[in-house]
Design the sequence.
């Protein structure tokens, strides 16, 4: 499967097309004018500022829960729970442009005719009403209100037209433009909810010297049933690309050149940029094999092979793969690479090829019994195990539930007698702990393709017992991504979300010992169709697609340097 369709790549939101830039530049500018940032990682008590010195006091014991990134503040309306921080010049609108960004997840929706307040600087007196972000129970939408400078008793209110649901994370960006005299609200920028709503404000905004509340409103309660995460305040307007970066998880508490020092950018891939390629370590080198590239508006498969040397931080071209293909499997056994099956844009292939690094040559081996694409694969006991993926003629979307295993020493394939309980596809979503084959997320529903209905399901297959076991689900569904196993943890990086044009930058990490997932600071290579491999205890990720642009980026992640774990 070609990743997201050409139609979606070329006709996705205009905002995504504007943001074909690296996260590096977005991160470097987002610190400019940032006057306050709160990540709400604390479980109780004071919620400290990551930027600035204005920390929030907890009122009526709000709790915490798993947030959009890390932890979040959780408030309950019935208990009148909220956070408050005293007035400060950085929190006043006045005559300066201002931007607020916050993540919100509602536990329940407000009743019809009622409201929840996400945050507010607002009291009962007419001159004390400065600004407030609300959830409207009647219209089930977000509304951003700022006091009209020309009339002390008037609020100018701009609202979205999207229906808000409980249990879904929304990134809400609210602005006051002191030059253009307007207020603006955006929800989930760069996804298919990314419409901008704005309204003129007469006389500009006015200030109020009362406290800022999160989870309620000072004048009339309007307490929130829900979670609030990552509240940031700028004394300026943001660019479209900066907003894009916010929706995909920017972290102000980390430093340059990337907010998580566990990541290092390496020499870019020198070939034509690809997605749906294969990436695997063999003999200390990292091989990128085949994949899909783009010329103008036309996708085509490539058979190019490049090897990256981590010691020299350099690339070298190797012998071409025998066929032009994408969505293939690639694994190493006893110092040799094995390329398996895949899709040539017309049919799924049964080919199996062996690469000998010493000879720089490919050799045809026994073909896989049932041709597949976009499947999970790993190595257990010097055998290559494949499961899931799509089968059938041409671009058929029939799911494969068979476990097929290749023994390189015998040059033979076999099919086990135990089927996958929830067949899935899209991306190499498999990895091995040395004993089991783990299958993380993917999709089990192609009914809306080229839209996506990503799954959260996670299972592992035990070749020893020939059985499947389901474990804790992935927090955020994703497909067209890759996974790797390092030191008792599974790392799922980036990928496509339920939105047909949406990508997640998330690093989702599963700890086997506790059967639990953790969300870590985002992966710098955000997109779909990227490929991962590991060398030692480090994870490498390369290529993929973002906003209609194919990537050549190569990054390495060292879990031992990640202080967020």
Sequence:
């Amino acid at each position: 499967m070609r990743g997201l369709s050409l139609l979606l790549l070329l006709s996705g939101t205009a905002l995504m097309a504007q943001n074909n830039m690296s996260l590096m530049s977005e991160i470097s500018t987002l610190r400019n004018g940032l006057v306050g940032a709160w990540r709400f990682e604390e479980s109780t008590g004071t919620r400290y500022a990551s930027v600035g010195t204005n920390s929030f006091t907890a009122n009526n014991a709000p709790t915490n829960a798993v947030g959009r990134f890390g932890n979040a503040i959780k408030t309950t309306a019935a208990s009148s729970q909220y956070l408050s921080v005293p007035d400060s010049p950085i929190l006043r609108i006045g005559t300066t442009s201002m931007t607020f960004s916050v993540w919100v997840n509602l536990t329940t929706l407000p009743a019809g005719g009622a409201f929840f307040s996400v945050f507010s600087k607002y009291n009962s007196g007419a001159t004390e009403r400065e600004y407030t972000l609300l959830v409207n129970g009647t219209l089930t939408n977000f509304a951003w209100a700022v006091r009209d400078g020309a009339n002390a008793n008037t609020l100018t209110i701009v609202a979205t037209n999207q229906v808000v649901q409980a249990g879904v994370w929304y990134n809400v960006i609210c602005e006051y433009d002191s030059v253009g005299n307007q207020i603006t609200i955006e929800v989930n920028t760069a996804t298919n909810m990314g419409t901008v709503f704005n309204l003129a404000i007469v006389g500009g905004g006015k200030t109020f010297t009362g406290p800022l509340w999160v989870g309620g409103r000072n004048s009339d309660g309007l307490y929130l049933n829900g979670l609030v995460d990552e509240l940031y305040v700028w004394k300026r307007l943001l660019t479209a690309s900066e907003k894009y970066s916010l929706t995909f998880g920017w972290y102000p508490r980390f430093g340059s050149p990337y907010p998580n020092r566990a990541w290092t950018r390496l020499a870019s891939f020198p070939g034509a940029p690809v997605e749906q390629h294969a990436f695997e370590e063999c003999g200390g080198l990292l091989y990128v094999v085949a994949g899909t590239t783009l010329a103008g508006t036309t996708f085509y498969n490539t058979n190019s092979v490049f090897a990256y040397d981590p010691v020299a931080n350099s690339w070298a071209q190797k012998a071409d793969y025998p066929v032009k293909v994408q969505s293939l499997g690639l694994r190493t056994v006893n110092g040799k690479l094995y390329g398996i099956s895949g899709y040539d844009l017309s049919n799924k292939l049964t080919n199996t090829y062996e690469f000998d690094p010493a000879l720089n040559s490919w050799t045809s081996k026994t073909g896989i019994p049932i041709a597949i694409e976009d499947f999970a694969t790993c190595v257990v006991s010097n055998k290559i195990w494949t499961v899931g993926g799509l089968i059938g003629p041409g671009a058929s979307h029939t799911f494969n539930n068979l476990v097929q295993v290749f023994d390189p020493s015998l040059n033979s394939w076999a099919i086990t007698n135990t089927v996958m309980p929830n067949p899935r596809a899209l991306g190499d979503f498999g990895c091995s702990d040395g004993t089991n084959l783990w299958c993380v997320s993917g999709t089990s529903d192609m009914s809306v393709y080229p839209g996506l209905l990503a799954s959260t399901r996670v299972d592992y297959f035990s070749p020893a017992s020939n059985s499947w076991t389901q474990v804790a689900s992935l927090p955020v569904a994703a497909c067209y991504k890759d996974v790797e196993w390092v030191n008792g943890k599974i790392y799922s990086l980036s990928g496509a979300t339920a939105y047909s044009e949406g990508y997640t930058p998330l690093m989702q990490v599963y700890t086997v010992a506790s059967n639990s997932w953790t969300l870590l600071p985002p992966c710098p290579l955000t997109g779909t169709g990227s490929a991962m491999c590991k060398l030692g205890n480090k994870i490498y990720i390369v290529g993929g697609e973002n906003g209609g642009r194919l990537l050549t980026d190569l990054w390495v992640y060292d879990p031992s340097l990640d202080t967020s774990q």
Summary: The chain has two domains: 33-235, 263-561.
